[in-house]
Amino acid sequence: MRRIPTGFPKKQTEKELQKLALEFERKIERGTYLDGGKMTFAELCEMWLDKYAEKELEPKTIARYKELLQLRILPAMGHIKLEKLQPTHLLDFYANLKEPGIRMDTKYVALPAFKDTYASMQLTQKKLSEASKVSKDTISNVLKGKNVTSKTAEALNDALNKLLNKPKGKISTYFMPSGEPGTLSPNTILHHHRLISAILQDAVEWQLIISNPANRVKPPKGEKTKQTHYNLHQTKDLISALATEPIKYRAMVILDAFTGLRTGEFMGLDWTDLNLEKGTLTVNRASQYLSDRGTFTKDKPKNESSVRTVNIPPFVVSLLKEYKAWWNEQKLACGDLWQGSNRLFVTWDGKPLFTYALTNWMPEFLKRHNLPKLTPHGIRHTFASLLAKKIPIPELSRLLGHARISTTDIYIHSLMRETNPDAGNMLEKMLIEKNQCIN
Asked: What gap in Å lies between CA 29 and CA 33, rounded to an integer?
């Protein structure tokens, strides 16, 4: 802002003050002051990622935000100066997101080149799975000509090029879009709005703009998604069906069902986190996956409340002891090829298993046993739902690692509060018949 030179006569000083006030009012009307109005929205986003997101947010969250920005937000609005950005720009953008064809990455199908390259390299599904972090079942479906998501197609495309010692090539080399272009879900459109609003609100806090245009727009309507969970009878059927399944996946499902851990939390467990004599486990870290980083370890789980010790019932302790014996046998058989990981769930050579291995395995398992649809996150909801009538909500919130009790209310469907027994032992009494064994 201009400054008034010293030594001006009183009347001239008053005129200058009036000019400055008028100039300030005009900047307020434009919604900007300082030098922020000279910025483009793209420049603001770059500043926001550098000064805030990269320092404060989780890697998965940053990756998702970058995807939203680069794929749709910046191509549509990145060129607009902050001083020119109006609520109508946002309304037009949201209207565009609702149009058919905006989601061009709905499904992909493999071209003959994919199968030819796979055959000529004498690849196995196991080797390609390890290189791409895509499950063997999914790769089998790709070879059969079934549709996959764009992320899966990109992962397989990158893995093939890497195995061929080639730079990342276009996805069109091995895949092509399949079917009609899809539309974005209401919740995805709402996520775009929330990100834009958050960035603009930080710009207000940083005194780059005087007000947030997104606050003058009604947020796009989202839709409530109901997480599938099992009732008591279905959960018993699930446990019975595991009796004939590989012990690695049996241990994953049972551990999840009796502790309610998040997927990244139980996939991030080391054997040192378990005390099988006391029947406890401690959540200290989480396993995560990003397409550009692969599987990696997050030193801390989701929040401070997520660091917790959970009791595990004798039934689960017995299964984990059996699994530990099998795990040691695999390590011994692998010999010098063992990668040295101490994770509970590992690949054949000891590396931490793909974070979403259970997610990829479950659909076929459920289909084989004629069980309703369920995800690992649905198992967590099942844990919460079965215990909702049995233990106080604050204790259930602690077991789930929620930072706020209000989050727990989303997970549960009954809120009767009774005396607080040990959750794991209570589930064992509810779910496991006397003398039942799934070995």
From this structure: 10
